[in-house]
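Dear Dr. L.,

I hope this message finds you well. Following up on our conversation about the binding site, I have prepared a predicted three-dimensional model of the protein together with protoporphyrin IX containing FE. For your records, I am including the exact sequence and ligand specification that went into the calculation, followed by the structure tokens. Please feel free to forward this to your student if that is useful.
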Amino acid sequence: MPVVGVAAAGADVPAPALPGEHFAAALVSFVLGALGLALVASDLARGLFFLPRVVAVVHLFTLGWIVTSIFGALCQFLPVAVGRGLRWAWAAHVSFAAHVVGVGCFVAGMASGRPALVLVGSAGLAAAFVGFAVNLAATLAGVRERGLTWWALCGAAIFLVVTPAYGVVLALNLDGGQLVGASRFTVVAAHAHVAIVGVVLLVMVGVAHRLLPMFLLSHGASERAGAAAVALLFSGAALLALPVGGGVTHAVAGALAAAGVVAFLIQAATFFRHRRRKAIDPGMRLAAAGLIGLAAAVALAPLALSRGLSDFGLLSTYFAVLLGALSLFVAGHHYKIIPFLVWYHRFGPLVGTRKVPRIAELYSERVAHVDGALLALGWLGLCVGIYTGQAEVVRGAAVALALGAAVEAIVLARVARRRIA
Ligand code: HEM
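The resulting structure of the complex is given below.
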């Protein structure tokens, strides 16, 4: 494992507590989200994705698991990704606290039907998103070498501000607002895709551009597809974020975003093809399952979004495929980043002075492989159960997913507690 990049960035690497607190909170949210899916299994099987309790569970995944993991990964890897650590580490702790309180209040408020708590949560989330965006922008402003990852993160910083604006408008609308029926759905769909394309996917493309070659020991791959992915995703999210424009604008934005995802998938496949080690470790295998899911979501999107409210089942299935795919990609990276983080801070400094374990020896690869299969099969079962309208299948799959999430959390918590004997 090449720790050279990180060693070179030595001074800027944050204390492990900063990424660590993000990853710990994210893993707790992953487990709670999967358990929540079991509780709303009947609603999902009937395609009632817009019910407040379902929206609560969705945001345990989107905000609690995916976005918190993204914040943590950026705290850890900005020195590798752009050669400079976050501008203000203290501010990242503050935005973390606002984010966690925001997620807690938002989810509890949605689940218990208390609009005031939803608004408090939305305000906390808005403060966290904007705070992190400012911290990220201040970091990027000081970077001289402005490559693909730099541009992707610049774009993400912009949509970290746009996303809460949509979120707060929707939260305000929940309590007797003007947006109802098709117009509400149009804004919800725009909000969800601006967040997913403009924040999640842009960060995934930017960071994966550094991490995938590093984790796969992949050299010599062309990077053109990655550059196209950043430009297409940014333009698609920007067009989608415009508060004006009808069906044509949304269709063009959707086409740009879909082309951006395809370009990213081509880039990722190129990295996998150029890898030096033929065997694929559990983390990268799970990430690959996520990428395959992303391809399925792109294929499903035109039909699901054009049918819209006339086919609740297909729409719910589409969101499950898309959010599940992103969740598997993130789960795979947790299996890579956390052992790396622990090794770098605990064992790295001892190299040459005594025998230290290799990163892959910090946890059981067999257990991680089985866990990966459990997560992937759980997600697959969830999508099939929602599409076929079978609540029992959805519930069983959600339990498998919760078990998979709990095993990952336990394995990584044990890694985090490893000390030199
Ligand atoms: C900044 C914080 C956010 C706030 C305050 C927020 C708020 C909301 C609200 C109130 C709804 C429900 C709207 C309705 O049913 O009328 C909603 C739906 C949704 N949001 Fe967010 N959101 C935020 C961030 C995100 C992020 C970052 C993502 C994705 C990565 C996301 C994905 C979604 C999805 C997929 C839906 C549709 C869920 C469903 O109907 O089941 N949200 N959001």
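In brief: The radius of gyration is 20 Å.

With kind regards,
A. P.
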